[in-house]
Amino acid sequence: MLRVRDLSISIGTPTESLDIVSSVSFEIERGEILGLVGESGCGKSMTSLAVMGLLEKGGPWVRTGRVQLSGFDVINSQPYQRVEAGHGGIAMIFQEPMSSLNPVMKVGDQIEEAIAVHQRTSGAKQTLKARELLEMVRIPDAAIQLGAYPHQLSGGMRQRVMIAIALACQPQVLIADEPTTALDVTVQAQILSLLRELCDTLGLSILFITHDLGVVAQLVDRVAVMYAGRVVETATVERVFAYPAHPYTEALMSCLPDSGHSKRRLATIPGQAAKPGQVRKGCAFAPRCRYAIETCVDEAPPYATISDTHRALCHFPRGVTP
Amino acid sequence: MNSYAVHRTSAAVTTLAAASVIIFFFIHLIPGDPLYVLLGDVATPDQVDALRTRLGLDQPIVVQYFRWLANVARGDLGTSIFFQTPVLHVIRDGAETSILLASITMIWITLIGIPVGVIAAMRHGSWLDQALSGLAMLFASVPTFWVGLYLILIFAAWLGWFPSSGYPSIFEQGGLANLRYLLLPSLALAAPNAALILRLTRASMLDVAREDYIRTARAKGIRPMRVILRHILRNALLAVVSAFGFTFAALISEAVVTETVFALPGIGQLVVQSILRRDYPVIQGIILLTVVLYLAVNLLVDLSYRLLDPRVELA
Amino acid sequence: MISVTRSFLIPFTRRPIAAVGLGILVCMTAVAILAPILAPYDPSKIEPIVRLLPPNAAHWFGTDQFGRDILSRVIYGAQLALLVGVGVVSFALITGVPAGVLSALYPRFGSIMMRLIDVLMSFPALLLALGLIVILGRGVTNAILAIGVVYLTTTSRITYGLTLRLRTETYVEAANSMGAGAAWTIRKHVLPNLISPLLVQASFVFAFAQLSAASLDFLGLGAPPEIPSWGNMLAEGRIFITRAPWLLFFPGFAIAITALSLNLVGDALRDRLDPRFRGMLNGNRR
Prior knowledge:
The complex is a heterotrimer.
Chain A: E1 2-12, E2 17-28, E3 33-37, H1 44-52, E4 61-69, E5 72-73, H2 79-85, E6 90-93, H3 107-118, H4 124-136, H5 142-145, H6 155-168, E7 173-177, H7 185-202, E8 205-210, H8 213-219, E9 222-227, E10 230-236, H9 237-242, H10 247-255, H11 294-298, E11 303-307, E12 310-313
Helix pairs in contact in A: 3-4, 3-6, 4-6
Chain B: H1 2-29, H2 34-39, H3 45-55, H4 61-73, H5 87-122, H6 127-141, H7 144-158, H8 183-209, H9 212-219, H10 224-242, H11 244-261, H12 267-277, H13 280-308
Helix pairs in contact in B: 1-13, 5-6, 5-8, 5-13, 6-8, 7-8, 7-11, 8-10, 8-11, 9-10, 11-12, 11-13, 12-13
Chain C: H1 4-14, H2 16-33, H3 35-38, H4 70-105, H5 107-121, H6 125-136, H7 140-167, H8 170-177, H9 182-219, H10 230-237, H11 246-271, H12 275-278
Helix pairs in contact in C: 1-2, 2-4, 2-11, 4-5, 4-7, 4-9, 4-11, 5-7, 6-7, 7-9, 9-10, 9-11, 10-11
């Protein structure tokens, strides 16, 4: 479905560049939800923008890599170009529903605009479809809400509208960049269940970006963990939580408050997240890794295959039960 | 919407009322007996007595004010000393020129300022953008009358393409072709204002382009031109429209000088000549009408803003 | 910590064109102050023999219809321009700032004061100035007063807005909760934070004062004809526009370059401001 291979994103000039995302690879199958997890600044948003084709001129750019949607190369093309070429199958929703909708346009019009681009309907049919989409994302009184302006809706409703707009693009893959971070916990749960439902009924694949492991546990099928611009581990969600292979993932898991032992001090990962370009050779996580030895500092780690669904970027992946 | 409209309108009316008090006192603040201020030095005793009774100058000042207000409401703004005709007629004669001049200027400002601002924003950072921004900065600083004088020199005197002064009415011989008399003056007037609108449009477009909803629009696969016009410009115009009130006031001020430079028989030149001729009733009448007009335009801009931006609820 | 002078100069290093503007202003000020020394001729000396000469070796800017040297007149015009600018800005600041600050700190007084300012602002700038000139009579001092009144309105409005913002800053609330009196609050918290925005405002007002004063002079309602002012020179030179275009070029260029430099400097300073304040300093042109 969606294949990302060796994606590297750089800043600077073509002659003097710095990779902020290095050799990222992952794939998402039909109807699957992949969680892209990592701290702020690890490059997950940048990766998603690159996959979507939304990197701005003058900013970070794709140095190398491939992005394939159902076999078609879509790297380095903007959304409108993809639509023209017939490969407009990726849609995206963003973190801030407050500011992600055009404030002077009615909600229904914004959905219809997407319909007009991606589907061959017009006029009254468009309005009908827009209403259906609002109903699909569980917005009450859909017919009336078509005429509402974004500021008249709550945060949760706005995010649903964003999802409706994304669906109007008839995507095979939906990229969700931290869509629930700015919402209340209760609303968050509703949005997550909505996404799961859409995934099941429409066969939609979702690339779900987040730093919240709790959300990961609830929603996703597989996980890709990013650190310092690299994917350091990919595995199913169960394995990531139970048997993390990369020391960073293991440390993340141990940071989660354990509801059983409320008196234990919260664990933290010492040190600060690596900045792009700080690491020249060796493993990026080595300075903070409690298991690091000289090899880790001197040599770049390979991808260790733990099982056919579990890989880690480490010289010595952690205690894994084969 | 209604409460907003009511609120704003009542605010405008109270401001107008307060301004009218100041304008009323204008005559009394001028050195000399108000009677002779209004009639000129060569008034006869009969005229003096007649005016005294008509204005109630023997009454307390408050009564005088309301008397004046009542007169104004009936259209009686006094009598011009110089022309010996009602002030309203004198002003009316000059109105055609000034209104046409202002309208043509506004058209230039809108047609030049906004599109060029959009282009500069679209080509942000390029040499074109820098050149346009530089030119805009230049024209915003240059005095209108200097631009006017040089336009006369180049296009009227040297090239002879346009007349350098005067304005025969379009209702007389020549018809609409007489509008060419207003071409140079309107360009001179438009120059600094178009420059400001250009800079404002450009800045506003650049601000809006950074907003999240523009990224959403792009993600939808909408073509770039539509994103620029339907999403960026549509939101950027909010800031530009609210500047039109200012622009109007600036136009009034600058028109006074421009009409003088081009010898246009409009209200601007009228006010200057009236000052030189000490025709105080006319000066007062013009100031009053200008304030009314300016407040009305501002009110209109405010109310229309509500139409453009659905987020505006109350003042 | 960067010294005040250094931090003042930073925006100019980033934008070379603004530095040029600043340089021009410094030169203008020097010219204005040193006018008696720099001017090659007496600006008022009438010499019919050399009337209407184009720029040449003896008279770099040419001569006018009375044979007066235009370069000297432009130099002395700079003196008047400086005087008018300083006068208007001082008047606007001295009256506008207290009005604005007090209006923000004392809401009851403020609502009346700001309404008054609104009323004054309902008169377009030049008309207000003209009205005042009619009452006061023409002349340089009266022109300064009239234009000053126009710009005290915008200055007080801006100061009002700025002080309101500052008043809601948490550190002011903290100070008040500790019992700080109004005067102390003003001195310690409000005024220091007003300096930068007001400096920007002063630049723009200076620029508009130039244009307004030139307009008044041009109309014959400002400086009397004996005084060499750029506006007067343009008014007098008008009829010779085809015969002697240099009469109009130099004074007009002087006005333009002064206003332009002030605008450039104001822009550069404004970029350095706290973004919250930046938007407030836009509403000057009327």
